[in-house]
Amino acid sequence: MSDQARPSPPPFDPERFRVEGRAVVDWIADYWATLASRRVTPDVSPGVVAGQLPPGPPEGPDSLAEVLADLDRIIVPGLTHWQHPSFFGYFPASASGPSILGELLAAGLGVQGMLWATSPACTELETKVLDWLRDLLGLPERFASIGAGGGVIQDSASSGVLVAMVAARERATGQRTNAAGLAGFDRPLVAYASDDAHSSVEKAAGIIGVGREGLRKIPVDHRGCMDALALATAMDADAAVGRVPFFVAATVGTTASGAIDPVAEIAAIAARHAAWLHVDAAWAGAAAICPEFRGELVAGADRADSWGFNPHKWLLVNFDCHALWVADRRAIVSALSMKPEYLRNRASESGAVIDYADWQVPLGRRFRALKLWMTLRMLGAEALRGHIRRHVSWASEFADLVAADPRFDLLLPPNLSLVCFALKAGDDATRELLDRVNATGRTFLTHARVGGRFAIRLAVGGGTTTRDDVLATWRVLENLA
Ligand code: PLP
Asked: Is the pTM of this model over 0.90?
Protein backbone atom coordinates (compact mmCIF):
# COMPACT_ATOMS: atom_id res chain seq x y z
CA MET A 1 0.00 0.00 0.00
CA SER A 2 0.96 3.58 -0.33
CA ASP A 3 4.02 5.06 1.31
CA GLN A 4 3.54 8.74 2.08
CA ALA A 5 7.29 9.33 2.04
CA ARG A 6 7.51 8.20 -1.57
CA PRO A 7 7.87 11.19 -3.93
CA SER A 8 5.17 11.66 -6.57
CA PRO A 9 6.52 11.04 -10.06
CA PRO A 10 5.60 13.59 -12.73
CA PRO A 11 2.26 12.67 -14.38
CA PHE A 12 3.68 12.99 -17.86
CA ASP A 13 6.99 11.18 -18.03
CA PRO A 14 7.73 9.56 -21.40
CA GLU A 15 10.41 7.25 -20.03
CA ARG A 16 8.29 5.99 -17.18
CA PHE A 17 5.35 5.56 -19.53
CA ARG A 18 7.49 3.50 -21.89
CA VAL A 19 8.27 1.01 -19.13
CA GLU A 20 4.86 0.96 -17.46
CA GLY A 21 3.03 0.95 -20.79
CA ARG A 22 4.87 -2.23 -21.76
CA ALA A 23 3.97 -3.80 -18.43
CA VAL A 24 0.29 -2.97 -18.94
CA VAL A 25 0.31 -4.31 -22.52
CA ASP A 26 1.93 -7.48 -21.17
CA TRP A 27 -0.75 -7.68 -18.49
CA ILE A 28 -3.49 -7.44 -21.13
CA ALA A 29 -1.81 -10.04 -23.36
CA ASP A 30 -1.54 -12.43 -20.40
CA TYR A 31 -5.19 -11.79 -19.57
CA TRP A 32 -6.24 -12.71 -23.10
CA ALA A 33 -4.01 -15.78 -23.09
CA THR A 34 -5.65 -17.06 -19.90
CA LEU A 35 -9.25 -16.03 -20.65
CA ALA A 36 -10.40 -19.48 -21.70
CA SER A 37 -9.31 -20.99 -18.39
CA ARG A 38 -11.40 -18.55 -16.34
CA ARG A 39 -15.06 -18.65 -15.36
CA VAL A 40 -17.05 -16.45 -17.75
CA THR A 41 -19.03 -14.80 -14.97
CA PRO A 42 -17.85 -13.98 -11.45
CA ASP A 43 -18.92 -15.88 -8.38
CA VAL A 44 -19.28 -12.88 -6.07
CA SER A 45 -21.99 -11.44 -3.85
CA PRO A 46 -22.91 -7.74 -3.83
CA GLY A 47 -20.41 -5.61 -1.90
CA VAL A 48 -17.56 -8.12 -1.97
CA VAL A 49 -15.45 -6.04 -4.39
CA ALA A 50 -16.17 -2.69 -2.72
CA GLY A 51 -15.43 -4.23 0.70
CA GLN A 52 -11.87 -4.97 -0.36
CA LEU A 53 -11.15 -1.38 -1.41
CA PRO A 54 -9.90 1.23 1.06
CA PRO A 55 -12.33 3.98 2.09
CA GLY A 56 -10.33 6.72 0.32
CA PRO A 57 -7.50 7.28 -2.19
CA PRO A 58 -3.86 7.16 -1.07
CA GLU A 59 -2.07 10.40 -0.15
CA GLY A 60 1.18 9.24 -1.70
CA PRO A 61 1.64 7.29 -4.93
CA ASP A 62 1.24 3.55 -5.24
CA SER A 63 3.44 1.77 -7.76
CA LEU A 64 2.09 0.21 -10.94
CA ALA A 65 3.07 -3.21 -9.55
CA GLU A 66 0.92 -2.59 -6.48
CA VAL A 67 -2.03 -1.46 -8.57
CA LEU A 68 -1.75 -4.44 -10.93
CA ALA A 69 -1.55 -6.79 -7.96
CA ASP A 70 -4.87 -5.37 -6.70
CA LEU A 71 -6.32 -5.59 -10.20
CA ASP A 72 -5.54 -9.31 -10.17
CA ARG A 73 -6.65 -9.87 -6.59
CA ILE A 74 -9.75 -7.69 -6.26
CA ILE A 75 -11.03 -6.48 -9.61
CA VAL A 76 -10.60 -9.32 -12.09
CA PRO A 77 -12.36 -11.92 -9.89
CA GLY A 78 -15.37 -9.55 -9.87
CA LEU A 79 -15.63 -9.25 -13.65
CA THR A 80 -17.84 -10.83 -16.27
CA HIS A 81 -15.33 -11.59 -19.01
CA TRP A 82 -16.98 -10.14 -22.09
CA GLN A 83 -14.06 -11.19 -24.28
CA HIS A 84 -14.21 -14.78 -23.02
CA PRO A 85 -14.55 -17.29 -25.88
CA SER A 86 -17.69 -18.71 -24.24
CA PHE A 87 -19.48 -15.40 -23.73
CA PHE A 88 -22.74 -15.76 -25.67
CA GLY A 89 -24.98 -13.39 -23.70
CA TYR A 90 -26.76 -10.19 -24.75
CA PHE A 91 -24.93 -9.13 -27.90
CA PRO A 92 -21.15 -9.33 -28.04
CA ALA A 93 -18.95 -6.34 -27.20
CA SER A 94 -16.28 -7.49 -29.57
CA ALA A 95 -12.77 -6.07 -29.56
CA SER A 96 -9.47 -6.72 -31.32
CA GLY A 97 -5.79 -5.96 -30.89
CA PRO A 98 -5.75 -3.26 -33.60
CA SER A 99 -8.81 -1.54 -32.18
CA ILE A 100 -7.41 -1.49 -28.66
CA LEU A 101 -4.15 -0.06 -29.97
CA GLY A 102 -6.22 2.63 -31.69
CA GLU A 103 -7.92 3.34 -28.37
CA LEU A 104 -4.53 3.64 -26.70
CA LEU A 105 -3.30 6.01 -29.39
CA ALA A 106 -6.43 8.13 -29.03
CA ALA A 107 -5.81 8.40 -25.29
CA GLY A 108 -2.12 9.05 -25.88
CA LEU A 109 -2.86 11.86 -28.31
CA GLY A 110 -5.52 13.20 -25.97
CA VAL A 111 -7.11 15.50 -28.52
CA GLN A 112 -10.65 16.86 -28.41
CA GLY A 113 -12.36 16.69 -31.77
CA MET A 114 -15.40 18.80 -31.03
CA LEU A 115 -14.75 21.24 -33.86
CA TRP A 116 -12.82 20.80 -37.08
CA ALA A 117 -10.61 23.62 -35.79
CA THR A 118 -9.81 21.85 -32.52
CA SER A 119 -8.08 19.02 -34.41
CA PRO A 120 -8.69 18.95 -38.17
CA ALA A 121 -7.37 15.41 -38.71
CA CYS A 122 -9.67 14.04 -36.03
CA THR A 123 -12.71 15.27 -37.96
CA GLU A 124 -11.44 14.45 -41.43
CA LEU A 125 -10.39 10.91 -40.53
CA GLU A 126 -13.82 10.28 -39.01
CA THR A 127 -15.62 11.52 -42.10
CA LYS A 128 -13.39 9.44 -44.37
CA VAL A 129 -13.59 6.24 -42.32
CA LEU A 130 -17.38 6.48 -42.17
CA ASP A 131 -17.44 6.91 -45.94
CA TRP A 132 -15.31 3.75 -46.23
CA LEU A 133 -17.61 1.92 -43.88
CA ARG A 134 -20.73 3.08 -45.74
CA ASP A 135 -19.22 1.66 -48.85
CA LEU A 136 -18.27 -1.63 -47.18
CA LEU A 137 -21.82 -2.09 -45.87
CA GLY A 138 -23.34 -1.19 -49.23
CA LEU A 139 -25.37 1.67 -47.75
CA PRO A 140 -26.82 4.14 -50.24
CA GLU A 141 -24.95 7.14 -51.62
CA ARG A 142 -27.30 9.51 -49.80
CA PHE A 143 -25.35 8.85 -46.62
CA ALA A 144 -22.02 9.80 -48.21
CA SER A 145 -20.30 12.93 -46.95
CA ILE A 146 -19.85 14.31 -50.46
CA GLY A 147 -23.60 14.98 -50.62
CA ALA A 148 -26.04 16.46 -48.11
CA GLY A 149 -25.55 13.62 -45.63
CA GLY A 150 -22.64 11.95 -43.89
CA GLY A 151 -21.55 9.80 -41.01
CA VAL A 152 -20.59 10.46 -37.42
CA ILE A 153 -19.38 8.29 -34.56
CA GLN A 154 -21.56 8.38 -31.46
CA ASP A 155 -20.81 6.58 -28.24
CA SER A 156 -23.75 4.20 -28.50
CA ALA A 157 -26.84 3.23 -30.43
CA SER A 158 -28.88 4.86 -27.67
CA SER A 159 -27.24 8.20 -28.46
CA GLY A 160 -27.77 7.49 -32.16
CA VAL A 161 -31.53 7.15 -31.76
CA LEU A 162 -31.65 10.14 -29.43
CA VAL A 163 -29.96 12.52 -31.86
CA ALA A 164 -32.03 11.11 -34.74
CA MET A 165 -35.19 11.84 -32.76
CA VAL A 166 -34.00 15.34 -31.89
CA ALA A 167 -33.30 15.98 -35.59
CA ALA A 168 -36.71 14.57 -36.50
CA ARG A 169 -38.40 16.90 -34.03
CA GLU A 170 -36.45 19.81 -35.47
CA ARG A 171 -37.58 18.97 -38.98
CA ALA A 172 -41.20 18.33 -38.00
CA THR A 173 -41.47 21.63 -36.15
CA GLY A 174 -39.82 23.73 -38.85
CA GLN A 175 -36.25 24.02 -37.51
CA ARG A 176 -37.25 25.76 -34.35
CA THR A 177 -36.73 23.61 -31.27
CA ASN A 178 -33.11 24.63 -30.75
CA ALA A 179 -34.27 28.22 -30.32
CA ALA A 180 -37.90 28.36 -29.24
CA GLY A 181 -38.35 24.85 -27.90
CA LEU A 182 -41.86 23.60 -28.41
CA ALA A 183 -43.43 26.91 -27.37
CA GLY A 184 -46.11 27.81 -29.86
CA PHE A 185 -46.13 24.33 -31.38
CA ASP A 186 -49.29 22.90 -29.94
CA ARG A 187 -49.79 19.72 -31.97
CA PRO A 188 -48.65 16.62 -30.12
CA LEU A 189 -45.72 14.81 -31.69
CA VAL A 190 -45.96 11.04 -31.96
CA ALA A 191 -43.15 8.50 -32.47
CA TYR A 192 -43.49 4.85 -33.49
CA ALA A 193 -41.44 1.71 -32.96
CA SER A 194 -42.27 -1.95 -32.68
CA ASP A 195 -42.99 -3.77 -29.43
CA ASP A 196 -39.60 -5.42 -29.87
CA ALA A 197 -37.64 -2.21 -30.59
CA HIS A 198 -34.82 -1.49 -28.19
CA SER A 199 -35.71 0.35 -24.98
CA SER A 200 -33.43 3.21 -26.05
CA VAL A 201 -36.20 4.44 -28.39
CA GLU A 202 -38.54 4.79 -25.44
CA LYS A 203 -35.81 6.44 -23.41
CA ALA A 204 -35.18 8.96 -26.21
CA ALA A 205 -38.91 9.77 -26.40
CA GLY A 206 -38.86 10.44 -22.67
CA ILE A 207 -35.75 12.62 -22.89
CA ILE A 208 -36.98 14.81 -25.72
CA GLY A 209 -40.31 15.48 -24.05
CA VAL A 210 -42.51 13.46 -26.37
CA GLY A 211 -42.85 11.14 -23.42
CA ARG A 212 -43.06 7.41 -23.33
CA GLU A 213 -46.77 7.81 -23.85
CA GLY A 214 -46.00 9.69 -27.07
CA LEU A 215 -44.32 6.58 -28.44
CA ARG A 216 -46.72 4.12 -30.06
CA LYS A 217 -45.60 0.52 -29.74
CA ILE A 218 -46.56 -1.31 -32.91
CA PRO A 219 -47.24 -5.07 -32.65
CA VAL A 220 -44.88 -7.61 -34.15
CA ASP A 221 -45.62 -10.81 -36.04
CA HIS A 222 -44.62 -14.28 -34.84
CA ARG A 223 -41.03 -13.66 -35.99
CA GLY A 224 -40.73 -10.37 -34.08
CA CYS A 225 -40.98 -8.13 -37.18
CA MET A 226 -43.03 -4.92 -37.05
CA ASP A 227 -46.53 -5.24 -38.50
CA ALA A 228 -46.40 -2.56 -41.21
CA LEU A 229 -50.16 -2.49 -41.63
CA ALA A 230 -50.60 -1.74 -37.92
CA LEU A 231 -48.03 1.05 -38.27
CA ALA A 232 -49.95 2.60 -41.17
CA THR A 233 -53.21 2.40 -39.23
CA ALA A 234 -51.69 4.00 -36.14
CA MET A 235 -50.05 6.84 -38.07
CA ASP A 236 -53.21 7.57 -40.05
CA ALA A 237 -55.31 7.60 -36.88
CA ASP A 238 -52.95 10.04 -35.15
CA ALA A 239 -52.77 12.33 -38.18
CA ALA A 240 -56.57 12.28 -38.48
CA VAL A 241 -56.95 13.85 -35.03
CA GLY A 242 -54.28 16.50 -35.57
CA ARG A 243 -51.27 14.79 -34.01
CA VAL A 244 -47.96 14.87 -35.86
CA PRO A 245 -46.43 11.48 -36.63
CA PHE A 246 -42.82 12.68 -36.73
CA PHE A 247 -40.54 9.70 -36.13
CA VAL A 248 -40.44 5.99 -36.87
CA ALA A 249 -37.72 3.65 -35.61
CA ALA A 250 -37.34 0.45 -37.61
CA THR A 251 -35.12 -2.27 -36.19
CA VAL A 252 -32.79 -4.41 -38.25
CA GLY A 253 -31.89 -7.17 -35.81
CA THR A 254 -34.03 -6.86 -32.67
CA THR A 255 -32.39 -7.46 -29.33
CA ALA A 256 -34.71 -10.32 -28.42
CA SER A 257 -34.57 -12.43 -31.56
CA GLY A 258 -32.62 -10.59 -34.27
CA ALA A 259 -35.82 -9.95 -36.27
CA ILE A 260 -35.66 -7.57 -39.20
CA ASP A 261 -38.50 -5.10 -39.64
CA PRO A 262 -39.83 -4.62 -43.19
CA VAL A 263 -37.93 -1.36 -43.63
CA ALA A 264 -38.89 -0.72 -47.26
CA GLU A 265 -42.60 -0.95 -46.43
CA ILE A 266 -42.14 1.11 -43.28
CA ALA A 267 -40.26 3.75 -45.29
CA ALA A 268 -43.19 4.15 -47.68
CA ILE A 269 -45.61 4.57 -44.76
CA ALA A 270 -43.35 7.05 -42.93
CA ALA A 271 -42.96 9.05 -46.14
CA ARG A 272 -46.73 9.52 -46.44
CA HIS A 273 -46.58 11.46 -43.17
CA ALA A 274 -43.18 13.08 -43.85
CA ALA A 275 -41.98 11.33 -40.68
CA TRP A 276 -38.28 10.75 -40.06
CA LEU A 277 -37.25 7.12 -40.49
CA HIS A 278 -34.40 5.92 -38.31
CA VAL A 279 -33.02 2.42 -38.78
CA ASP A 280 -31.50 0.84 -35.69
CA ALA A 281 -29.21 -1.91 -36.93
CA ALA A 282 -27.10 -1.86 -33.76
CA TRP A 283 -26.01 -5.49 -33.85
CA ALA A 284 -27.06 -6.94 -37.21
CA GLY A 285 -25.79 -4.03 -39.33
CA ALA A 286 -22.21 -5.34 -39.16
CA ALA A 287 -23.21 -8.36 -41.26
CA ALA A 288 -23.96 -6.08 -44.22
CA ILE A 289 -20.23 -6.14 -44.99
CA CYS A 290 -20.94 -9.63 -46.41
CA PRO A 291 -22.76 -9.29 -49.74
CA GLU A 292 -24.73 -12.49 -49.12
CA PHE A 293 -26.37 -11.04 -45.96
CA ARG A 294 -26.65 -7.46 -47.15
CA GLY A 295 -29.92 -7.57 -49.09
CA GLU A 296 -32.43 -7.62 -46.23
CA LEU A 297 -30.16 -5.67 -43.89
CA VAL A 298 -29.98 -2.55 -46.04
CA ALA A 299 -33.36 -2.91 -47.78
CA GLY A 300 -35.21 0.40 -47.51
CA ALA A 301 -32.09 2.27 -46.38
CA ASP A 302 -32.36 4.34 -49.55
CA ARG A 303 -35.45 5.98 -48.01
CA ALA A 304 -34.23 6.22 -44.42
CA ASP A 305 -33.25 9.54 -42.87
CA SER A 306 -30.75 7.93 -40.53
CA TRP A 307 -29.19 4.50 -40.21
CA GLY A 308 -26.92 3.34 -37.42
CA PHE A 309 -25.04 0.29 -36.20
CA ASN A 310 -22.45 -0.53 -33.56
CA PRO A 311 -19.03 -1.59 -34.82
CA HIS A 312 -18.48 -2.21 -31.10
CA LYS A 313 -20.94 -5.07 -31.16
CA TRP A 314 -19.81 -7.39 -33.91
CA LEU A 315 -17.13 -5.69 -35.97
CA LEU A 316 -14.16 -6.13 -33.65
CA VAL A 317 -14.00 -2.49 -32.58
CA ASN A 318 -13.98 -2.12 -28.82
CA PHE A 319 -16.70 -0.19 -27.02
CA ASP A 320 -17.63 2.60 -27.61
CA CYS A 321 -18.26 3.10 -31.31
CA HIS A 322 -21.66 3.65 -32.90
CA ALA A 323 -21.66 4.62 -36.58
CA LEU A 324 -24.59 6.84 -37.51
CA TRP A 325 -25.35 8.16 -40.99
CA VAL A 326 -27.85 10.85 -41.88
CA ALA A 327 -29.17 11.56 -45.35
CA ASP A 328 -29.40 15.32 -44.75
CA ARG A 329 -27.27 16.85 -42.04
CA ARG A 330 -29.21 20.13 -41.85
CA ALA A 331 -31.80 19.01 -39.29
CA ILE A 332 -29.26 17.48 -36.93
CA VAL A 333 -27.01 20.54 -37.11
CA SER A 334 -29.92 22.93 -36.76
CA ALA A 335 -31.08 21.09 -33.65
CA LEU A 336 -27.74 20.60 -31.93
CA SER A 337 -25.37 23.36 -33.04
CA MET A 338 -24.21 25.71 -30.31
CA LYS A 339 -21.54 28.27 -31.09
CA PRO A 340 -20.86 30.45 -28.06
CA GLU A 341 -18.20 33.10 -28.56
CA TYR A 342 -15.40 30.93 -27.17
CA LEU A 343 -15.99 28.28 -29.85
CA ARG A 344 -16.32 30.62 -32.82
CA ASN A 345 -13.65 30.31 -35.46
CA ARG A 346 -13.08 31.09 -39.13
CA ALA A 347 -13.30 27.50 -40.35
CA SER A 348 -16.74 26.96 -38.81
CA GLU A 349 -17.97 30.26 -40.15
CA SER A 350 -16.73 29.42 -43.65
CA GLY A 351 -19.24 26.54 -43.76
CA ALA A 352 -16.56 24.43 -45.41
CA VAL A 353 -15.95 22.08 -42.48
CA ILE A 354 -17.85 19.63 -40.29
CA ASP A 355 -18.00 20.39 -36.57
CA TYR A 356 -19.01 17.06 -35.07
CA ALA A 357 -20.05 18.68 -31.78
CA ASP A 358 -23.08 19.82 -33.81
CA TRP A 359 -24.03 16.16 -34.42
CA GLN A 360 -24.09 14.91 -30.83
CA VAL A 361 -25.22 15.74 -27.30
CA PRO A 362 -21.87 16.43 -25.57
CA LEU A 363 -19.49 19.12 -26.73
CA GLY A 364 -16.22 17.25 -26.24
CA ARG A 365 -15.45 14.16 -28.23
CA ARG A 366 -12.79 11.48 -28.28
CA PHE A 367 -10.77 10.48 -31.32
CA ARG A 368 -12.80 7.29 -31.85
CA ALA A 369 -12.15 7.18 -35.58
CA LEU A 370 -8.60 5.98 -34.86
CA LYS A 371 -9.70 2.61 -33.53
CA LEU A 372 -12.10 2.11 -36.41
CA TRP A 373 -9.41 3.10 -38.91
CA MET A 374 -6.85 0.81 -37.32
CA THR A 375 -9.28 -2.11 -37.23
CA LEU A 376 -10.17 -1.68 -40.90
CA ARG A 377 -6.55 -1.19 -41.94
CA MET A 378 -4.82 -3.79 -39.81
CA LEU A 379 -7.42 -6.55 -40.27
CA GLY A 380 -8.78 -5.70 -43.71
CA ALA A 381 -12.34 -6.12 -44.95
CA GLU A 382 -11.97 -9.78 -45.90
CA ALA A 383 -10.96 -10.81 -42.36
CA LEU A 384 -13.97 -8.94 -40.99
CA ARG A 385 -16.24 -10.76 -43.44
CA GLY A 386 -14.71 -14.08 -42.39
CA HIS A 387 -15.36 -13.21 -38.73
CA ILE A 388 -19.07 -12.63 -39.43
CA ARG A 389 -19.44 -15.64 -41.73
CA ARG A 390 -17.90 -18.06 -39.25
CA HIS A 391 -20.27 -16.93 -36.52
CA VAL A 392 -23.31 -17.27 -38.75
CA SER A 393 -22.30 -20.77 -39.75
CA TRP A 394 -21.57 -21.89 -36.14
CA ALA A 395 -24.94 -20.49 -35.02
CA SER A 396 -26.62 -22.48 -37.75
CA GLU A 397 -24.80 -25.66 -36.64
CA PHE A 398 -25.87 -24.98 -33.05
CA ALA A 399 -29.48 -24.42 -34.17
CA ASP A 400 -29.44 -27.81 -35.93
CA LEU A 401 -28.33 -29.48 -32.70
CA VAL A 402 -31.16 -27.77 -30.79
CA ALA A 403 -33.70 -28.73 -33.43
CA ALA A 404 -32.56 -32.36 -33.36
CA ASP A 405 -33.03 -32.71 -29.59
CA PRO A 406 -36.65 -33.65 -28.81
CA ARG A 407 -36.53 -31.88 -25.43
CA PHE A 408 -35.95 -28.47 -27.06
CA ASP A 409 -37.87 -26.11 -29.34
CA LEU A 410 -35.92 -23.98 -31.76
CA LEU A 411 -38.16 -20.92 -31.52
CA LEU A 412 -37.09 -19.40 -34.84
CA PRO A 413 -34.60 -20.16 -37.55
CA PRO A 414 -31.46 -18.32 -36.44
CA ASN A 415 -31.22 -14.68 -37.47
CA LEU A 416 -27.57 -14.38 -38.51
CA SER A 417 -25.64 -15.60 -35.44
CA LEU A 418 -28.45 -15.39 -32.88
CA VAL A 419 -30.24 -18.57 -31.83
CA CYS A 420 -33.37 -18.52 -29.63
CA PHE A 421 -34.59 -21.73 -28.08
CA ALA A 422 -36.53 -23.12 -25.12
CA LEU A 423 -37.32 -26.36 -23.40
CA LYS A 424 -40.60 -27.95 -24.45
CA ALA A 425 -41.25 -28.37 -20.71
CA GLY A 426 -42.08 -24.65 -20.48
CA ASP A 427 -40.88 -21.29 -19.18
CA ASP A 428 -39.98 -22.33 -15.64
CA ALA A 429 -37.96 -25.31 -16.80
CA THR A 430 -36.18 -23.15 -19.39
CA ARG A 431 -35.35 -20.46 -16.80
CA GLU A 432 -34.00 -23.08 -14.42
CA LEU A 433 -31.89 -24.62 -17.14
CA LEU A 434 -30.42 -21.21 -17.99
CA ASP A 435 -29.56 -20.62 -14.34
CA ARG A 436 -27.91 -24.02 -14.00
CA VAL A 437 -25.92 -23.57 -17.21
CA ASN A 438 -24.66 -20.12 -16.22
CA ALA A 439 -23.82 -21.30 -12.69
CA THR A 440 -21.20 -23.64 -14.17
CA GLY A 441 -19.16 -20.58 -15.16
CA ARG A 442 -18.15 -22.45 -18.33
CA THR A 443 -20.42 -20.50 -20.63
CA PHE A 444 -22.75 -17.51 -20.46
CA LEU A 445 -26.14 -17.13 -22.12
CA THR A 446 -28.96 -14.65 -21.52
CA HIS A 447 -32.69 -14.68 -22.17
CA ALA A 448 -35.52 -12.78 -23.83
CA ARG A 449 -39.19 -13.24 -24.47
CA VAL A 450 -39.75 -14.58 -27.98
CA GLY A 451 -43.26 -15.25 -29.27
CA GLY A 452 -44.49 -14.99 -25.69
CA ARG A 453 -42.10 -17.68 -24.42
CA PHE A 454 -39.10 -17.45 -22.14
CA ALA A 455 -36.24 -18.04 -24.55
CA ILE A 456 -32.56 -18.73 -24.06
CA ARG A 457 -30.46 -16.72 -26.52
CA LEU A 458 -27.08 -17.76 -27.87
CA ALA A 459 -25.42 -14.77 -29.56
CA VAL A 460 -22.19 -15.77 -31.27
CA GLY A 461 -19.89 -12.85 -32.02
CA GLY A 462 -16.85 -12.57 -29.78
CA GLY A 463 -13.39 -12.11 -31.24
CA THR A 464 -11.96 -15.06 -29.28
CA THR A 465 -14.78 -17.56 -29.84
CA THR A 466 -14.16 -20.75 -31.81
CA ARG A 467 -16.50 -23.40 -33.18
CA ASP A 468 -15.41 -25.69 -30.32
CA ASP A 469 -16.63 -23.14 -27.78
CA VAL A 470 -20.06 -23.06 -29.44
CA LEU A 471 -20.25 -26.86 -29.50
CA ALA A 472 -19.04 -27.09 -25.88
CA THR A 473 -21.87 -24.78 -24.86
CA TRP A 474 -24.35 -27.12 -26.51
CA ARG A 475 -22.86 -30.04 -24.56
CA VAL A 476 -23.33 -28.16 -21.27
CA LEU A 477 -26.94 -27.45 -22.24
CA GLU A 478 -27.78 -30.99 -23.30
CA ASN A 479 -26.19 -32.48 -20.20
CA LEU A 480 -28.05 -30.22 -17.83
CA ALA A 481 -31.41 -30.23 -19.64
N1 PLP B 1 -30.53 -1.24 -30.44
C2 PLP B 1 -30.48 -2.57 -30.43
C3 PLP B 1 -31.24 -3.35 -31.47
C4 PLP B 1 -29.71 -3.24 -29.47
O5 PLP B 1 -29.68 -4.57 -29.45
C6 PLP B 1 -28.99 -2.48 -28.51
C7 PLP B 1 -28.18 -3.15 -27.48
O8 PLP B 1 -28.02 -4.32 -27.43
C9 PLP B 1 -29.09 -1.10 -28.56
C10 PLP B 1 -29.87 -0.50 -29.53
C11 PLP B 1 -28.38 -0.23 -27.56
O12 PLP B 1 -27.02 -0.24 -27.80
P13 PLP B 1 -26.03 0.74 -27.04
O14 PLP B 1 -25.57 -0.01 -25.84
O15 PLP B 1 -24.94 0.99 -28.03
O16 PLP B 1 -26.77 1.97 -26.68
From this structure: yes
